[in-house]
Design a protein that fits this description.
The structure is a homodimer. By secondary structure, the first copy, chain A, is an alpha/beta fold. Chain A folds into 3 domains: 85 residues, Barwin-like endoglucanases (Beta Barrel), CATH 2.40.40; 209 residues, Pyrimidine Nucleoside Phosphorylase, Chain A, domain 2 (3-Layer(aba) Sandwich); 81 residues, Aldehyde Oxidoreductase, domain 3. Helices cover 41% and strands 21% of the residues of chain A. The first copy, chain A, contains 18 helices and 19 strands. In chain A, the strands form 5 sheets. In chain A, strands 1-6-3-5-4-7 form a 6-stranded mixed β-barrel. In chain A, strands 13-16-18-14 form a 4-stranded antiparallel sheet. In chain A, helix 3 packs across helix 5, helix 7 crosses helix 16 and helix 17 runs antiparallel to helix 18. Chain A is globular and about 75 Å long. Chain A starts with a strand and ends with a strand. At the A-B interface, strand 2, strand 5, helix 5, helix 10 and helix 18 of A face strand 2, strand 5, helix 5, helix 10 and helix 18 of B. Strand 2 of chain A pairs antiparallel with strand 5 of chain B.
Chain lengths: 496, 496
């Protein structure tokens, strides 16, 4: 048996284990041919990737080291006696090999694969093999089985009686922070909307990152339940309640491969909503040349897949296509986006009209899940609740019960304005480049970093007039972002 | 700029980099969305996977750590000032995305992919994506382009005038150590056979592991050249002369995925032979139910692919199918296999007849590349050179010039005999299970570990009589191997 030691080293999305090269009990070479080892003590076990250590100051011959993430998940104290074994291949590996050979998998096989993925039994390269062999060649029945399996493996929430509504945007358009306006409106109306959101993966801000500027978002399930009982709505971070552990693992491989297969996206979104106990969902698909979905035909195919899986799993869906041709609102990055959201909720005259209008449209569609409303009546109800200040009051109560943010997040003080190269009118703004600039500037890690759009599509601009302002908190980021923006602003300006 | 520090941690086949979480110049979060970072100083640069350190004893805020492997490759001293940047995606990534989308790649694209693989620009998951999208769906032209590209990126050897012969077995049958008998025979005959071999990847011994029991195998190219000039043959480790760096990277991903695509195998073998300067090659394809190639139809398809690529690259091929139904010889593991090889070369009466016969057959086919011999005459020449002791004398000279092994490798002293459950005759021996038992016992890391087969197919056995003996050097390995053998011996014994 080896003594457990915490090694303060971490890698994103991977459990790390450390064994001394001079360990006499197990020799690291025994394990080298394998991707993962299994560490066990009492009834606990964890799979981790092995690293070999040649420095007794980091690890001694009678110790087994776990990196921060693995140590936390394993949950045993330092000094505990542990055993090490070669991790046996996941039992569902045969199903993955069948998929590699071009077969269609049955529900039982997909179930087993998803359970093993969620239990972290697969290496990243095995997951890549599964995703690549599945991408573009999944039968709709497989997508359905994948959705059901993913919904089952994580936490499952349930709510007292009646319909539980939600909205979800597939992403890809920066500044599109409508949830923080839709949820207060819908909760103020009286429907139950326990919203869980993600943090940014490749974007400069997720709803959870932006809400965190105003309130705590890492709530426990019990806190979430008590808040929803009182306020009908909440805006919390879904990662904390572990709704779809398999999805988190899949995303960690899709992201660096720039794979975003349609089938996987639908399974991911619907499984999370099922696990969260939703019964009715508005899905927002922005369509635009630099958005995730480029044209209406692609959007229609995606809509049909959503509807098929929704119908088969008992989730009532309303899939809407929206304008994804430019960023929404003005601010990109958590602090700037929170500013825009609060301007809309406070009915300030300079609130971004596109963010307001889009939020009212989506809130209206959600309200129409109420059988008492007729089609087309939702938006008016939404607008009244916004104009009356009811939505603002609802947001303020939700912030109060979630716990107002204790930190103050100032806007990044390193700023640079990016000027228009010519006089004319803004014809297009590239969503991808603006998002990347904001991310290089430090968003979402630095909540005050990002991009403030001073001009939107259709607005007139003089030569040298500022198109947008970059905000950063640290010099290295400021340099990365300004250099990237100098390469190409992301704006197309043309003479009238 | 950060100060370079060597961190005594290593992971197989991966460059590791370390950055302190409290590093003020770069923040680890900036890089988290990416798989690799690029570290540069002077004109050197290296790509590595980022780990984040929370312990100033391991790494301080003004330092950039490199793991052992990366530090060695980078080649700068500790304390050198280095810069860190996000690794830009390899330029050939677009070609991989085209392959993912089902396209056939052209030579220029495959060239670029192979160059980037060899330069370590890809992450393992990107390589997995490439392999999976290629496996079973590569056009023969793509296999040819892959072969040519792989042969070009590494070291290229050339030899003075005339034909340069070689033999290669695709593997999968334990104990199949014919090269160590074929090379001395062929060199004694007078043909040039500069043999480079691999170390074991998933098997209990590669030819390089077994030859190392007798002599040094990590020779420089210059040493190799001078030995071949004098002795016409050598038996060295190919990994040391870097003949196919791209192949090494591909194998590191194929192995844990248990992927062994035919196309990849052909490209790998032929590219290495081209790089090694061979002009004539005998390819040995063992066929058997537990070998790599299971049936004659599969063997024929493989033979045709070898012949297509060989013809197009100017390598003269003789592809032979051999018996792969059971292990060859008696010993499995470096010391035991070296014992069998030397028994054959010394013409000892108890030398394994199957190893002897197989080696003579293959040596005969190689000798027939000599235009002075007629088809069918090779084996007789080979047998004469073996029986006369010329082959043994040739092997002894090769050992002397390569440098006799300075270490003594004793046979593992922890032994257990695995008994037959019944009286009868051995009907079958599972190559895979026997190899795995030997590997669990410690081979090839411990050269004295392995399995000694006391009975072969067709031999009579009493109930309780030993089928094979396990040898191990360390208690943990001994336990792994004996427990595995207890689960199933790998032998089928049936009544006469």
């Amino acid at each position: 048996m080896l003594k457990l030691r915490r090694v303060a080293i971490d890698a994103r999305h991977e459990n790390l284990a450390f064994l001394a090269r001079d360990c006499r009990q197990y020799r690291p070479e025994e394990f080298e041919a394998l991707e993962k080892i299994e560490i066990s003590a009492d009834n606990r076990r964890i799979l981790a990737i092995l690293n070999v250590v040649d420095d007794p100051a980091i690890l001694k011959g009678d110790e087994l080291g776990l990196g921060e993430r693995a140590f936390r998940h394993f949950g045993m104290p330092e000094g505990a006696l542990v055993e090490v074994a070669q991790a046996s291949p996941p039992q569902s590996l045969e199903a993955i090999h069948r998929k590699l050979a071009g077969h269609v998998l049955v529900e039982r096989e997909i179930d087993a694969v998803v359970r093993d993925i969620a239990a972290n039994r697969y290496s990243k390269i095995e997951i890549a093999a599964f995703l690549v062999s599945s991408a573009g060649s999944m039968a709709v029945e497989e997508v359905l089985a994948l959705t059901r399996a993913m919904a089952k493996v994580g936490t499952q929430l349930s709510w007292d009686g009646g319909r539980v509504v939600d909205k979800h945007c597939i992403g890809g358009v920066p500044g599109n922070r409508t949830s923080m306006i839709v949820v207060p409106i819908v909760a103020a109306y009286g429907l139950t909307i326990p919203k869980t959101s993600s943090r940014a993966i490749t974007s400069p801000a997720g709803t959870a990152d932006t809400m965190e500027v105003l309130a705590r978002v890492d709530l426990s399930i019990e806190e979430m339940r008590s808040i929803v009982r009182r306020e009908r709505g909440c805006l919390v971070w879904g990662g904390h309640v572990d709704l779809s552990p398999a999805d988190d693992v899949l995303i960690s491989v899709e992201r660096p491969l720039s794979l975003d297969p349609r089938e996987q996206m639908v399974a991911s979104i619907i499984s999370k909503k099922l696990a969260a106990g939703s019964t009715h969902l508005v899905v927002d698909i922005p369509v635009g040349p630099s958005a995730k979905v480029r044209d209406p035909e692609e959007a229609e195919r995606l809509r049909k897949l959503f509807e098929y899986v929704g119908a088969a799993t008992g989730l009532t869906l309303d899939v809407v296509l929206t304008d994804g041709t430019q960023p929404v609102g003005r601010g990109i990055g958590p602090v700037l986006e929170a500013r825009d959201v609060m301007k809309v909720l406070r009915n300030e005259p300079e609130a971004p009209p596109d963010l307001r209008e889009r939020s009212l449209f989506l809130a209206g569609r959600v309200l129409e899940f109420d059988p008492r409303l007729r089609a087309g009546e939702g938006r008016d109800h939404a607008e009244k609740l916004l104009a009356s200040g009811d939505a603002l009051a609802q947001m303020e109560r939700m912030i109060a019960v979630q716990g107002p943010s204790r930190a103050l997040y100032p806007l990044g003080q390193l700023t640079r304005e990016v000027p228009s190269p010519a006089r004319g009118r803004v014809k297009a703004i590239d969503c991808y480049r603006i998002a990347r600039t904001a991310r290089l500037a430090g968003a979402p890690t630095d909540k005050g970093a990002g991009v403030d759009l001073l001009k939107k599509v259709g607005e007139a601009v003089a030569e040298g007039e500022a198109l947008y302002r970059i905000h950063a908190c640290f010099p290295a980021d400021f340099k990365f972002a300004t250099e990237y923006a100098r390469g190409a602003s992301g704006y197309t300006v043309a003479p009238d």
